[in-house]
Amino acid sequence: MAREIMDFLKPTPSKKFIDFTFGFGGHAKLLLSFGAKVTGIDRDKESFLYGKKLEKQNSRFKIIRAKFSDIYEQHEKSRLKNQNNGKELDSEHFMTLNPEKNLCTYTNANEIRNTKWSNKNYEADANKDMDKKTYFKEDFSKIISEADGILLDFGVSSEQIDNQEKGFSFTNEGPLKMQMGLNNVSAYDVVNLYDQHVLADIIYHYGDEVKSRQIASKIMEKRKEKKIETTKELSDIVNSCFRGFSKKPHSAKTFQAIRMFVNDEVNEIVKILHVLKSKMKAGAKLATITFHSGEDKIIKKEFKGCFLTTKPKFLQPSLEETLFNSRSRSAKLRLGAKKII
């Protein structure tokens, strides 16, 4: 739906844009081709390194590595500092004033997230990717407030799915990771260390999987024999809980659920929208692409009262596009312009 996005954003040499999900630059390069200035933001290390190469090639482009929650945290610290007469707040004070559970009103994700693991002393140091570099030097509020248009594509990139080492795919064997970058937990941790009822809740709430209890029970049974280490092992375990043929792979919902939990995708979306609603200038345009009904509900709710939406209320890929890229078939594109408040 690149054409629809460009028709809506109307990039020109005088305009500035933010691609909050840079990936490997598909949308950013299109914006640059119109002469616009573009800031790309992504949490993925490979995407960041690719962006650094593009940055050297084009002076109108800049790449920043960050999660949406990092941007939210900077925004909230600045807001609370202003409320506190310019005094810096320590992290304990910040978390007390801004408990994450107040943000996530769409699922019970935080109840799941706060549940103790079976191994209470375990910390996933071996799987941490918390190599935060210098992106907190960036003034995200300034970057957002100056933007004429912003793009958020919440799908997993084809490059991530096709990279076996990332562990996103249930069709290719790879290590159980599913990390988009800057994570403090991996799919391996979730599958091998979480209690059975927590696993079942994750699979049910994030994947809408009706057999979540049976799948969690089977995972517990298998991990008593050995650690579950690869995507194929997990996929085989999930598939063993089903009978008969299905157009959609049986393991798809479970893989989606674990990926969404590992990357805290619901909270990340809520947090970036919170900042955008506060900092985008009047008339600035926002384009969002979702691939999950729960994410789309969040976008739909957050657009109300803050953005003037286009008609129809959302767009979907054409048949021609889905034939060319089958992964786009569930995409929903919503377009809106920030209201004058």
Automatic annotation (TrEMBL):
**What's an example GO cellular component term for this entry?**
cytoplasm
Q: Which SUPFAM superfamilies match?
A: Putative methyltransferase TM0872, insert domain (SSF81799), S-adenosyl-L-methionine-dependent methyltransferases (SSF53335)
Give any GO molecular function from the UniProt entry.
rRNA (cytosine-N4-)-methyltransferase activity
Which EC numbers characterise this protein's activity in its record?
2.1.1.199
User: Is Methyltransferase one of the keywords UniProt gives this record?
Assistant: yes
- Asked if Plastid is a keyword of the record, the answer is no
Q: Which reaction does it catalyse?
A: cytidine(1402) in 16S rRNA + S-adenosyl-L-methionine = N(4)-methylcytidine(1402) in 16S rRNA + S-adenosyl-L-homocysteine + H(+)
Gene Ontology BP annotations: rRNA base methylation
Alphabetized UniProt keyword annotations: Cytoplasm, Methyltransferase, rRNA processing, S-adenosyl-L-methionine, Transferase
Q: Where does S-adenosyl-L-methionine bind?
A: G25, G26, H27, D42, F68, D153, Q160
Family stated for the protein in its record = Belongs to the methyltransferase superfamily. RsmH family.
What does the UniProt function comment say about this protein?
Specifically methylates the N4 position of cytidine in position 1402 (C1402) of 16S rRNA.
What's the protein called, per UniProt? Ribosomal RNA small subunit methyltransferase H
The gene name on file is rsmH
